[in-house]
Amino acid sequence: MELGRWKYKQQMATRPRGYGLTAEVNRKIQEKYDVNLEQEARRWIEQILGDELVPGSDPNTPLGHDKFHEVLRDGQVLCRLINTLHPGSVKKVNKQKANFFMMENIGKFLEACGAYGLSKNDQFHTAALFEKTNMTQVVDTLHALGRTAQKKGFHGPTLGVKESEYNPRNFSQDKLREGQTIIGLQMGSNRGANQQGLNFGKSRSITD
Question: Can you give the residue ranges of the Calponin-homology (CH) domain (predicted)?
């Protein structure tokens, strides 16, 4: 197990990060990373779990791209988070640090998020976190989860603005017909209108 882990670390350390277009895409993704959004998500998680993500660190200073990735990568924090928002979402959280178990934790978290009501479009891909290819997407997912939690009525700490809810208005047929007889103000008014006294242009005189 230790030998396999060492080989994996060596491969990860020596593999190319991408050239040309790939490198340019990765650079742009990194530039979009917002430490302020990260900090909001981090403090929300800490408040919900009652633990510091990095014990002894300054709570007012963002962890930053790499450190935030490090504390979330094994998926354990994320599983604890969704289990607090929706108890029983992840039945078993793997404690082993083997890559397979860490990726399984992340997968279970994402699956639980979907069951909780989070749209697929708002979920990051496993590789985005595990391989640190798109931490911006990870932070966005946490904010989307925070909005969903409010919508679900979670009474603990909040993150972001509550999502609006679908609220259709149903009118009776009589009410709809009544509305069709009203002239909108943007159309002007016909009240008191007549042709008396109207004179456009120069009048034409007809004589015998």
Answer: 35-149
pLDDT of residue 3: 46
Residue 149: partners with Cβ closer than 8 Å, 6 or more residues away:
85, 156, 158, 159
Q: Any idea which residue has 């593999």 for tokens?
A: 15
Inside any domain, residue 112? yes
Contact in structure between 89 and 83 (CB atoms under 8 Å)? yes
| CB crowding 127-156: b at 16 or more within 10 Å, else e | ebbbebbbbbbbbbbbbbbbbbbbeeebee
**Residue 73: pLDDT above 70?**
yes
pTM comes to 0.69
Q: What does the alpha-carbon distance between residue 124 and residue 149 come to, in Å, rounded to a whole number?
A: 17
The confidence score (pLDDT) of residue 31 equals 80
Determine, yes or no, domain membership for 167: no
List pLDDT tens digits, range 166-187. 555 565 677 667 756 665 555 5
Residue 114 has pLDDT above 50, yes or no: yes
Does residue 94 fall inside a structural domain? Answer: yes
Query: What is the count of structural domains for the chain?
Result: 1
Domain coverage including residue 51: 33-151
